[in-house]
Amino acid sequence: MPTPDVFGWDIGGAHVKVCRMAAGEVHEVLQWACPLWQGLEHLDRVLQAALQRWPQLQQARHAVTMTGEMVDLFAHREDGVQRIAAHLAQALAPAPLQFFAGDAGWCNAAQAARHWEAIASANWLATARHAALARPGSGVLVDIGSTTTDLIAFRNGRVLTSSRSDADRLASGELVYQGVVRTPLCALAPRIQWRGRELNVMNEFFATVADVYRLTGELNPAHDLHTTADHAAKDLPASRQRLARMIGLDARDGSAQDWLAFAHAWRACQVQEIGGQLQRVLALHGLGSDTRIVSAGCGDFLVPDLATLAGLDHGVAYGKQVALIAQVAPQTAPDLAAWAQVCAPCIAVAALLQMPPQEKV
């Protein structure tokens, strides 16, 4: 009798990421925009789309992690974990769901209330554990997403940090609340270079970092799923106009080359900030120049510059290279490995669920 598929889920506050694994290999990965702060109906829409895509969902096994409990739709994180777990269990019934609870192991939807603290925002731990088990020696996970960056050290198959909450990781530098899509641009720097002058930045929601990476050509349009700050177009002229507002100008006040140079100035600020936090994490855990980076997320295009800043070898990508972490099935869509890179936590929980108990550390 064939082994049922295992689906991995990462329920975020802005996206839902899902993978389908069979016989330990990734066969499909999908991402949907899901502005959960606007209501659970957005999660319902994603679940309906998933059920249409995979009619076997209600007969499969499911591994779930989440960060969506943080959104301000919920009274508190405990409420968020319970309501998301109940929502998934109802939509996917009678399929068995297992929620990743970090050090507490796995639990079902009925046990989620008791383990809510371990379930809440644990997707980074799943990815780091999977990477640690797959890569010998010392390493650091650098997962740059649309909204946040995780910097997680590991050695000899074990995640090194004792931090488990977002608050503790914000204190240690292991969680940097910057990504490459949704972050308000004014969060990157108080002052910025424009044509040889340094200007104060307008602390208004005029632009996001997606505008920067559209101009540099590094942001894949498939990962650019959210509306712009002004709800206008995502083309280059509109992106230039949003950047111009950050310093009290209009797009017509500079050339295309001027605005590209301005975008690179913002990019340098973000690399400097994330790179500084990476160096802090390496020092915290006593990791040296032999540390290998495992990169993940839609912002992995920043990793070579971060590696140079920290004096490290780039190492391996979670899904893209020969020495990958995610085991992508052969003869699948050519972009599947790239999507495995972007959606690492959903693959990690699916892979961890299938490991023998003695291998789960």
Most strands sheet: 6 strands, mixed
CATH third-level topology of the largest domain? Nucleotidyltransferase, domain 5
Highest CATH level, the class of the largest domain: Alpha Beta
What is the averaged pLDDT score? Answer: 92
Shape: globular
What class, by secondary structure content?
A: alpha/beta
Please identify which CATH superfamily of the largest domain we are dealing with: conserved archaeal protein q6m145
Percentage of residues in helical conformation: 25-40%
N- to C-terminal distance: 30 Å
Rounded to the nearest angstrom, the radius of gyration is 20 Å
Number of helices: 11
Kindly give the count of domains: 2
Percentage of residues in DSSP E strands: 15-25%
**Strand numbers in spatial order across the main sheet:** 3-2-1-4-5-6
Low-confidence stretches: none
What is the ordering of alpha helices and beta strands? Answer: EEEHEHEEHHEEEHEEEHHHEHEHH
Strands, total number: 14
Summarize the structure.
The chain is an alpha/beta fold and 361 residues long. The protein contains eleven helices and 14 strands.
Q: Can you walk me through this structure?
A:
The chain is α/β, with parallel strands linked by helices and 361 residues long. It has two domains: 6-125 and 325-359, ATPase, nucleotide binding domain (Nucleotidyltransferase, domain 5, 2-Layer Sandwich); 137-324, Nucleotidyltransferase, domain 5 (2-Layer Sandwich). 35% of the residues lie in helices and 20% in strands. The strands form three sheets. Strands 3-2-1-4-5-6 form a six-stranded mixed β-sheet, sandwiched between helices. Strands 7, 8, 9, 10, 13 and 14 form a six-stranded mixed β-sheet that branches. A two-stranded antiparallel sheet has the order 11-12. The longest helix is centred in the last third of the chain and has 29 residues, at 256-284. It is globular. The mean pLDDT is 92.
